[in-house]
Structures are given as structure tokens and as C-alpha cells.
């Protein structure tokens, strides 16, 4: 997990904010995020990598009907709070709740049907 300054720098980027908003409700592929951001996939891959390094985005391997693998990305946070004080600022991140292992297995299994 990155420190608060890194998170503030990250969320200052328009692409990052769009990626987080798009992945908030359901996981998205880089292709879908590229369309949502109206940006080249290489640009989105760089942002996704930074978000994963900061612990703000997770990925999951998917299998398409043709047998190929690809990743979908999911926001790992609910909110970012920046508290401004005389001595500086503090950043608090509300992370999403962890999915129960049984629920995750069921969801993954149903995704392969």
C-alpha cells in the first residue's frame, strides 16, 4: 500500500478517477476501461499497474468462450478521505469488504459456465 501522498497524486489523474468509477460496481477489462476513458490501452495498463501497486485495484483472471485468458479489474476501495490540517493532511481509505471464500468460489465457478 502506498502512502497518502501517492494516493492523492493517483486520484488527481482523470484516467484513474474514471477507472475507479467504472470498476466500482463491477469488474472491467482493459478494453472496456480504454473505451470508457477514450484512451489507448497502453495508457490504461500503466494506470491499472499503478492502482494495483497502491492496493486500490485488484485483478482476476477470466476465461472467454474461445478459451483465451484475460484480466478484469475491480476497485478495492469505497472512498478516499483527505483531512486537511494546519500541520499537513492525512488520507484515509475505506476499502471494500473482503468476499467470503465460499462466495468467491461460487462466483468464480459460475463465471466458467
Automatic annotation (TrEMBL):
Transmembrane segments: none annotated. It holds the Pfam family HTH_20. It comes from the Archaea. This is Helix-turn-helix domain-containing protein. It comes from Halolamina litorea.
